[in-house]
Specification:
By secondary structure, the chain is mostly helical. The chain contains ten helices and six strands.
Length: 316
């Protein structure tokens, strides 16, 4: 131990002969530090990328598991539906087998026959009810077809229409007489009239009760079209009404002729009563000639004859 201590003292005091020089550590340059930081950043990025890739793989696996579960569920449903379909198909086969068994046993056939007879009876009752309903529905047009136009005199129709509307409307009446339920457009086309003119005349005939119509929607164009027919049921009533109006007018005129004295000039310009002639100082307002009294016995006789004729026609 003493020897060792002495050696250590000598080593501390004296310089060693063969001692190597310790190299001085040089300071590391900034470029090397930069390279180290870059390498560290790259390593960190790689670690992050690895982590994200691991997460993505986990998410994909979870999605795949969900899809597999859905496919399994759908397969189960399909198998259930196929089972149901097969059950439906097998049901009529079982019934057929049961029927074949019943045919062999005579005792069991009787109730099945009774049931079949009841079902047939019910079906026949339903068919009868439906047939009766159809017959009721189909009877309506038959009644409409039987409703024919009553007989009438064409002369009387011409006279009535001529007095009410003028002779221009008579061709339209004859066109309505020849057909039934004619469209207003066809009437206007046949008579070469304006559609508005034809409609106005037709509505006047309808007001007096000489025409009837019904409206129907055109499926192609979408507007309503009127179909017209001649109505002669009120012709006699209209004729009687017109004759009564004529009789009333003739009576009024006859009273006027019998109650007044009339004056007239040479040229027969104006015919006035005594009161009006007094106002005009017995001078004609047109030719300024003197007005003289007139004998109106002939006019009174003519009016009486015409009244008698009209009364006969009205009574007949």
């Amino acid at each position: 131990m003493v020897k060792l201590i002495n050696k250590l003292v000598k080593a501390i005091k004296g310089k060693p002969k063969n001692r190597k020089a310790t190299p001085i550590k040089k300071p590391v340059s900034s470029s090397k530090n930069v390279k180290k930081t870059v390498s560290k950043n790259k390593e960190n990025k790689k670690k992050v990328v690895k982590k994200t890739s691991i997460k993505n793989t986990k998410v994909k696996k979870a999605k795949m598991i969900k899809k597999d579960n859905k496919m399994k569920i759908t397969k189960k449903k399909e198998t259930k539906s196929t089972k149901k379909i097969t059950i439906k198909k097998t049901k009529p086969i079982k019934k057929k087998i049961s029927v074949s068994k019943t045919k062999t046993k005579k005792k069991e056939v009787k109730p099945t026959i009774k049931k079949a007879e009841k079902t047939i009876a019910k079906k026949t009752e339903v068919v009868k009810k439906t047939n009766t309903k159809k017959a009721k529905v189909e009877k309506v047009p038959e009644v409409e077809e039987k409703k024919k136009r009553p007989k009438f005199s064409v002369k009387l129709l011409e006279e009535v229409v001529g007095e009410l509307f003028g002779e221009e409307v008579i061709p339209l009446i004859f066109r309505l007489k020849d057909g039934e339920n004619i469209s207003e457009f066809i009437l206007a086309n046949d008579l070469k009239w304006d559609i508005h003119q034809t409609r106005a005349i037709l509505y006047k005939l309808y007001e007096y009760g000489l025409a009837s119509f019904f409206r129907k929607k055109d499926k192609v164009k979408g507007w309503y079209v009127c179909y017209w027919d001649l109505d002669v049921t009120k012709l006699d009533h209209i004729n009687a009404k017109l004759q009564q109006e004529k009789i009333d007018k003739l009576k009024v005129r006859l009273q006027k002729e019998e109650a007044n004295n009339f004056y007239m000039c040479k040229h027969l310009c104006v015919r006035t009563t005594f009161d009006k002639a007094m106002d005009l100082e017995f001078k004609c307002p047109e030719c300024n000639e003197i007005m003289n009294p007139i004998d109106n016995k002939r006019t009174i006789e003519f009016l009486n004859e015409r009244l008698a004729e009209l009364k006969k026609e009205a009574s007949a």
